[in-house]
Write a structure and sequence with these properties.
The protein is α+β, with helices and mostly antiparallel strands. It is 30% helix and 26% strand. The structure holds coenzyme A. Coenzyme A (COA) binds next to α1, β4, β5 and α4. The site of coenzyme A has 18 residues, from α1, β4, β5 and α4.
Length: 167
């Protein structure tokens, strides 16, 4: 499969953290493995392996629409530890995921801080209503619940959440 070439344009608002960088062309296979394992631990009943092509298509569509994919690297090994897909024009955060070994070690915070830093003052996302770990993480970060909906892929109940930059 051919992957979309990531943009190399500088990203206003993104600091120069040595553990954070834009997605590189070669990151996709590792991102897919990480995403399948991380989501698989949350919903063991869903076959995330079968959704690899969906994720590539999703990221391609999002990046084509102006989103950027940012990767966080593990502290010691510098291995890919997680990624976030955020649109700096709309503030829509479509994907955030950290690898299993990196849950709870601050990688998700680095990603979310970067997403908020490049956002237009607001970050919006949908989360599955039963994904308690993610909801707890967002609330700790200052997100508020703003509405309810339904996941288009799974039909599961979702919660809309929103973070706003302090005035
Ligand atoms: C969501 C995600 C990015 C958060 O990153 P993380 O490193 O796991 O987050 P943290 O450990 O910093 O925070 C999770 C919080 O939930 C708590 N938590 C853990 N398991 C929980 C559970 N089953 N129910 C409720 N809270 C839980 C943790 O204690 C922590 O709260 P605390 O800081 O008050 O102790 C990560 O878990 C992930 O990649 N999940 C799979 C993909 C996913 O769900 N993405 C979000 C889609 S909307």
């Amino acid at each position: 499969m051919n992957y979309i070439e990531p943009s190399r344009e500088p990203l206003p608002g993104l600091g120069a953290s040595p553990r954070l960088r834009r997605r590189a062309q070669g990151d996709i296979p590792e991102m897919l493995d990480l995403w399948v394992a991380s989501w698989g631990a949350v919903y063991p009943d869903i076959d995330f392996n079968a959704r690899r092509d969906w994720l590539i298509e999703q990221i391609t569509a999002l990046e084509t629409g102006g989103a950027v994919t940012l990767c966080v690297l593990a502290k010691e090994s510098q291995a890919l530890a997680g990624f976030v897909v955020i649109n700096p024009d709309s503030g829509w955060l479509d994907q955030i995921c950290v690898g299993l070994p990196y849950k709870g070690d601050g990688c998700a915070e680095i990603l979310m801080a970067a997403a908020c830093a490049v956002s237009p003052g607001v970050v919006r996302l949908d989360v599955n209503a039963d994904n308690m770990r993610a909801i707890r993480f967002y609330e700790r970060f200052g997100f508020a619940q703003t509405g309810r909906g339904e996941n288009t892929l799974s039909g599961r109940a979702t919660i809309q959440m929103e973070w706003r930059a302090p005035e």
